TrEMBL record:
Pfam families: Amidase (PF01425)
Phylogenetic lineage: Eukaryota, Fungi, Dikarya, Ascomycota, Pezizomycotina
InterPro entries with a match to the protein in the record: Amidase (IPR000120), Amidase_dom (IPR023631), AS_sf (IPR036928)
Protein name, as recorded: Amidase domain-containing protein
SUPFAM superfamilies, alphabetized: Amidase signature (AS) enzymes
GO molecular function: catalytic activity
Organism: Neoarthrinium moseri
Domain Amidase: 87-202, 220-552
Length: 571
């Protein structure tokens, strides 16, 4: 392989570079700089001619039992929640504990699973020109970790087109249906994960009420790995009545996962219970040596808290002390109801009432519950949009990897009319991210001083939440602003469809840029507008201190001492 010369006339090229920066090369110095540049070019060419290197920590073991995959038939995929079906296990769990032995898991289809097509929810030509979907040769770090823990990957799950939608209607394969009510969103962009988990929730709910099984929903899973840039784990969990955690930024490595911006990229667990969510976090958390999102605060693997064991131990201790009860399970817990989270423009009054009632339950359980005002939360979506929008176009431009990240090949085909027409019809949010990102990258239009000011307000937002969380152990907000939303109508204009796809993120996206962990649990049923006697789940978001996920799990488990959120009457 030969490096393409920057310019045949290297001297002229260096002169032009110098001139563009406001200085000129002295004639006596030119030969020295030309020689230095040629030496640097020779170093690059030397490395280009070396064999490709794949880090062995990300390469599947040679004794793996095979990685066959299939695209399920429509009859086998009634919710359209599966992207590809697999049956992948590790021959011998490598972590020695086998924490996930016997458990099935779905992997969001923006994560690399070696040997299985990666779709990112979009059409193949968006990822590799006119070729089929790319097939990764390496596993994402967290994929390796769940296999090492004994899980069986039964498939990759459908996600939204480029993962840029918080509904479930933009995937190239069609909408993902909510298992509780077909025709309604399962949330996005981890759409398939939530639907697959909710299949088990629906079946259990019906079994407990001696109702016929819902066999028409197809095969579900025990656990799922999702990704969240603005609510993409938490909103699907809320709409489908399951559990989803956006961890502290940098707790779970994002290596090998298609991202939007390092400031907001999170990967995390989704499950059918609080404990399973904690268990899966125990398996996937911790420094991996590749992901630059992981700061010195991130724990090394051997120092990762065993979140499920901590939860078990705390419940056991409180049980012995006779405080794990309907009147004292939340004793010592200080709960702040975030006032501004109830002021978002599209919050359904019934949802607001359900969440306030759910928050007040902590007081019944012996906790302290108070209102708290964080004015910055009201404009936090602007902070998110500005901070992420400045660089989000890089998703489509194949940017150079950062110095510390592992250089996975990324999907960045040329933009053309076909690209534009297809995405405008399916997900105009993706085109908006590209156009607006390039617009904001113009240094004359948006100089470094603007970028610095935007990032200073990210720190302001983090500090505001930190200040509130010095007074309270957790903060409470609504998650999904309405109980259920029909899939988008055909023929919506660009603005209307883009607003439809992301208008439900106003209480979730702030915590992506602040980095605080946020757990969504189901807390009740809400009436579905336009559907007589129909109800869908409502989720409550519990936000905690950075690196304080164990408190979120304890708060959620304490809340459920008085009954789980979907135990109530559903018509």
């Amino acid at each position: 392989m030969t490096l393409q010369r920057i310019d045949p006339a290297l001297v002229d090229a260096l002169r032009a570079i110098a001139k563009s920066r406001g200085f000129s090369l002295n004639a006596r110095d030119e030969s020295g700089y030309v020689a230095l540049t040629r030496n640097a070019q020779a170093s690059v060419e030397f490395l280009l001619n070396l064999p490709d290197y794949n880090d062995p920590r990300l390469v599947p073991p040679v004794d793996n039992q095979g990685r066959a995959y299939s695209r399920p038939k429509a009859s086998e995929n009634p919710l359209n929640a599966w992207s590809h079906k697999t049956n992948i296990t590790a021959s011998v769990p490598a972590d020695g504990l086998g924490l996930l032995m016997g458990r099935t898991i779905a992997i969001k289809d923006n994560m690399r699973v070696a040997g299985v097509p990666l779709t990112d929810g979009t059409q193949p030509f968006h990822l590799s020109e006119d070729k089929p979907y790319p097939i990764p040769q390496l596993d994402a770090t967290i994929v390796s970790r769940v296999l090492d823990a004994g899980a069986t990957i039964t498939g990759t799950s459908t996600c939204e087109n480029y993962c840029m939608s918080a509904m479930s209607c933009t995937s190239a394969t069609g909408p993902v249906q909510n298992p509780w009510l077909s025709g309604y969103t399962s949330g996005g962009s981890s759409s398939g994960n939530a639907a697959l988990l909710a299949i088990h929730a629906v079946q259990k709910w019906r079994e407990e009420r001696n109702l016929p099984p819902a066999n028409h929903l197809g095969e579900g899973v025990d656990l799922a790995l999702g990704a969240d840039q603005g609510g993409s784990i938490r909103l699907p969990a809320a709409y489908c009545g399951v559990y989803g955690l956006k961890p502290t930024l940098g707790l779970v490595p994002y290596t090998g996962i298609e991202g939007l911006h390092p400031l907001c990229d999170h990967a995390g667990p989704m499950a059918s219970s609080v404990r399973d969510t904690a268990l899966l976090l125990s398996v996937v958390a911790g420094y991996d040596g590749f992901d630059p999102r992981m700061t010195p605060e991130a724990p090394l693997r051997e120092r990762v808290p065993q979140y499920h064991a901590l939860l078990d131990d705390e419940i056991a201790a409180r049980t012995v002390a006779e405080t794990w009860s309907p009147t004292s399970a939340a004793k010592g817990l200080r709960v702040g109801i975030l006032q501004e989270s109830f002021d978002i423009p599209n919050l359904d009054p019934e949802v607001a009432s359900i969440i306030r009632t759910a928050a007040s339950r902590f007081a019944e359980l012996g906790g302290i519950v108070e209102e708290v005002s964080i004015p910055q939360h009201a404009y936090a979506p602007h902070t998110f949009s500005a901070a992420v929008g400045l660089h989000a176009a890089d998703t489509f431009l194949n940017p150079a990897p950062s110095a510390l990240s592992y250089p996975f090949s990324t999907a960045a085909p040329s933009q053309n009319q076909h690209w534009y027409d297809n995405l405008t019809a399916s997900n105009p949010q993706a085109v908006h991210i590209f156009l607006t990102g390039l617009y904001l990258q113009d240094r004359q239009r948006c100089p470094e001083s603007v970028r610095a000011k935007v990032l200073s307000h990210v720190h302001e937002l983090r500090a505001a939440y930190d200040e509130a969380l010095a007074r309270f152990d957790v903060l409470i907000t609504p998650a999904n602003p309405t109980p259920g939303v029909k899939h988008a109508e055909q023929g919506l204009g660009v603005r209307d469809k883009a607003d439809f796809l992301l208008s439900n993120t106003l209480n979730t996206c702030p915590f992506n840029v602040s980095g605080h962990p946020a757990l969504v649990i189901p807390v009740g049923w809400g009436a579905v507008k336009g559907e007589e006697d129909a109800q869908l789940p409502v989720g409550m978001q519990i936000v905690g201190r950075r690196w304080g996920e164990e408190t979120l799990f304890l708060a959620a488990a304490a809340w459920e001492v008085l009954g789980k959120g979907l135990d109530g009457v559903r018509t």
